[in-house]
């Protein structure tokens, strides 16, 4: 038996679709735009050099031909498509030096030149380099990072990560500028959580493939529920704070109930709604169902949050509670069972609890993510070529065909704010929560009642890579905004 | 947004591939063969009428044209492809009456004629009819079933189920024969567990799709482990006794360790092996890994079995312990942690536990299962047309192209044995365990050591339906025998 699966092999041959603008790199360049947005004044003292950077847009025009040597690192949890960012960089002709195990590899100057990206094309995971969650913030770490990029003679550094990692990128960019380094720092928006969004960043990479994998599984479980008519499945979905993953999966699968943290409902209200639904379905002869809840629910429900205050919970190096440790789904089931007793419920409540996270973070990227990531890698290289630093790559019109995508480099400081963490003022990238006015949420609001009683489960099935583009190339459903 | 996903819609159009023999039903018939196998004599008193039935093979020759009215029911847990069995029946022109919620629907005469199978073609689940686990064994139940088939004027009854359900089918066939009923009873081998095998039944339907879905998820988790380098993932796989699912998934994904219940190793040996591997990988700088274990492990490990004797466990109506309730994976993790302490292990053991079951039982059937099930449905109808009863459909050469598949109807009694259940002698179909001599197991034995230290993870990716047949149409790997 071959050590590569047939699909792995086939996927190596996939040629990502890219924007027309990116075909010939000698014919495009980044051009400064007038920006309406200004970062909060409070950030000026922390980012004196990079505070006033303009947004740039990729436009037609002469592009410089330069030999580039660029460092790259993965930061935080894996997301499908990371290897394609590297492939997009390598294919410009740039030399790419990969740092091992995330920011730690930069600080410790551990890594290797990527000589052959071919075995990783269109494959999931971050395993070519590994990843890590080290936060670069001390003077020593910043100085060590500067030393590394000098020694490696890097023209630029591409940080592939989420909100915390891109905060790192902003700090590095500022530090490098302050110290007269020529190394540019460019961020690439990654997170399956989907919370690294803004007006300009429609969705980070990885979100699409991870959600499609979760939706496949949820659809399968729903069909099982409807076939066996025996269990309520409580399915918790990864996503640190925001409920983007849950919303996307709900749109894809039409569960009987999906809790969205951002609605900020009280625990009693939630338990009441679930119990009410179970009673109504029982009267309709249905003792089964599917309920989705976001991992981050706990951050929005005061009583849940209260309940866990005393439990000693591990925090990650960024000071975030590791919410995946908290078994919200089991807690909810217990509370619902009590509530049903109170209501003298005559039926049975058999439950199965699931947590979907690791199942989707390293899957093979969908065509959407494969194209998107390859585009991001190509763009990041161009941004460095054109001398931009402290920026993050942003691709516009993601619902359209890749050929029509637009590309901007946004100053990271524009996405930032000051927050109090562990008693200190820290610059952070604002997490984008589900907006109660966004089209996809309004759609969900309008339809969710009809999913409660009738079973209108929608079965997305497994991600397809070949065949009709309607099936293979679809963008995330929540991009309807 | 459409209530059907784009892939659901596309799959409705798939035309299952069938054996050449099944193209024109007027040109084939079942022919009795000389059988070398004889059922155990002890069964003669229980099955006086059906004890001596011969095996039949489908061969070319004139086939009778008859209008048929056939009942069908799903029994037990769902398996991908069930709806295609019904489609295969309907497309012969037979009238198909579907009983609701498994054998209970037959006893209670609840069901409906299937007028339009189209929305269910190539879709997962058993939701068109529902399923159930009622065991038909009392005189009253048997008499009620006979009454139903008489009232419905059924020429035959197709029981789509696993070992227990096909035992039911055998009892019904015998009872109907004893009472002079003209209704034939034909079984169709279903179970994702894969334990309804014999020399003649290469694999039951559903096993392929379920395992492919589990393998997709396991591959994703392995890639995550290798990317994050942080966790040991203990993944428990559904499968009541036999470890076929675990073996198949191990062949598909090359985990660091896969426990096969049938090796009948002691608990200490298992805990020792896992701990040993964790220590060795730690020395190689790896604090992550993937370990597969079968749900049924507990039935083969005396100490595990002992440990749960006192716990009051729910039994299903067939008297089977519901092993999925037992958190073997958590128990093992605790024991390994203790063992590592004893060995003064200096590394960290962070674990994530998973249980894969409901994620795959109702997925969209792979092309393999879609073809196989459609073939089984067509065959079952022919068996009834040709007057066979007390038989199960068996398709040969499943590794070859469907065009070359061969088809037999095996007397169910040939698969049976007498077992003591709850103190009484009961006829049961022998569960097929993993055979230590089967080729796929020998292959596994030969390679598993090399998977322990080196990461040779194989990533199957999601089931594909379109494109290269090497990717879309592959049979299960354990069919190498």
Task: Please provide a written account of the structure.
The structure is a homodimer of 481-residue chains. In chain A, strand 3, helix 2 and strand 4 (95-99) form a beta-alpha-beta unit. The first copy, chain A, is α/β, with parallel strands linked by helices and 481 residues long. The first copy, chain A, has 14 helices and 15 strands. Chain A has helices at 6-12, 82-90, 103-107, 139-151, 163-178, 207-228, 244-253, 267-283, 297-300, 302-307, 328-342, 367-385, 439-452, 469-472; strands at 28-32, 56-60, 69-74, 95-99, 111-113, 156-161, 184-189, 232-237, 257-258, 289-294, 351-356, 391-396, 406-411, 416-421, 424-429. The first copy, chain A, is globular. The interface between A and B is large, with 64 and 63 residues.
State the oligomer: homodimer
Largest interface: A-B, 64 and 63 residues
H-E string of chain A? HEEEHEHEHEHEHEHEHEHHHEHEEEEHH
Number of strands of chain A: 15
Judged by helices, strands and strand pairing, the structural class of chain A is alpha/beta
Strand order of the largest sheet of chain A: 1-2-13-12-7-6-3-4-5
Q: So what's the overall shape of chain A? A: globular
Q: What is the helical fraction of chain A, as a range of percent? A: 25-40%
Q: Unreliable runs of chain A, pLDDT <50, ≥5 residues?
A: none
CA distance, first residue to last residue of chain A: 46 Å
Count of DSSP-assigned helices of chain A: 14
Please tell me how large the radius of gyration of chain A is: 23 Å
Strand residues, percent of chain A: 15-25%
Biggest sheet architecture of chain A: 9 strands, mixed
In round numbers, the mean pLDDT of chain A is 93
């Amino acid at each position: 038996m071959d050590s590569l699966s047939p699909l792995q092999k086939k996927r190596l041959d996939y040629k990502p679709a890219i924007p027309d603008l990116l075909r010939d790199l000698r014919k495009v360049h980044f051009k400064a735009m007038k920006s309406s947005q200004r970062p909060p004044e409070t950030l000026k003292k922390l980012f004196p050099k990079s505070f006033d950077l303009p947004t740039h847009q990729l436009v037609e025009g002469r592009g410089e031909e330069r030999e580039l040597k660029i460092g790259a690192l993965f930061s935080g949890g894996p997301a499908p498509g990371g290897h394609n960012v590297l492939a997009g960089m390598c294919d410009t002709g740039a030399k790419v030096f990969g740092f091992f195990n995330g920011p730690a590899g930069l600080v410790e100057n551990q890594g290797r030149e990527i000589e052959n990206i071919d075995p990783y094309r269109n494959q999931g995971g971050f395993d070519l380099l590994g990843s890590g969650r080290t936060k670069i913030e001390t003077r020593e770490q910043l100085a060590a990072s500067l030393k590394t990029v000098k020694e490696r003679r890097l023209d630029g550094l591409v940080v592939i990560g989420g909100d915390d990692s891109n905060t790192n990128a902003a700090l590095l960019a500022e530090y490098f500028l302050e110290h007269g380094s020529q190394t540019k720092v460019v961020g690439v928006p990654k997170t399956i959580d989907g919370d690294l969004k803004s007006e300009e960043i429609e969705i980070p990479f990885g979100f699409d493939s991870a959600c499609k994998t979760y939706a496949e599984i949820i659809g399968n479980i729903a069909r099982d529920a409807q076939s066996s008519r025996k269990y309520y499945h409580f399915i918790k979905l990864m996503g640190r704070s925001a409920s983007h993953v849950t919303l996307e999966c709900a749109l894809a699968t039409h569960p009987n109930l999906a809790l969205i943290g951002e609605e900020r409902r009280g625990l009693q209200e939630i338990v009441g709604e679930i119990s009410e639904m179970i009673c109504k379905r029982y009267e309709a002869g249905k003792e089964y169902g599917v309920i989705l809840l976001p991992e981050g629910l706990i951050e929005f429900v005061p009583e849940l949050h209260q309940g866990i205050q005393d439990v000693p919970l591990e925090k990650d190096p960024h000071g975030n509670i590791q919410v995946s440790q908290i078994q919200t789904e089991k807690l909810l089931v217990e509370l619902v069972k009590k509530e049903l007793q109170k209501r003298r419920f005559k039926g049975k409540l058999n439950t199965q609890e699931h947590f979907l996270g690791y199942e989707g973070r390293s899957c093979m990227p969908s065509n959407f993510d494969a194209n998107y990531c390859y585009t991001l890698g190509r763009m990041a290289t161009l941004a460095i070529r054109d001398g931009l630093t402290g920026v993050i790559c942003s691709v516009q019109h993601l619902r359209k065909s890749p050929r029509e995508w637009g590309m901007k480099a946004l100053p990271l400081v524009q996405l930032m704010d000051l927050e109090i963490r562990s008693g200190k003022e820290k610059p952070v990238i604002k997490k984008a929560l589900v907006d109660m006015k966004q089209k996809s949420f309004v759609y969900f609001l309008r339809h969710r009642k009809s999913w409660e009683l009738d079973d209108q489960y929608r079965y997305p099935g497994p991600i397809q890579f070949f065949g009709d583009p309607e099936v293979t190339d679809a963008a995330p459903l929540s991009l309807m905004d």
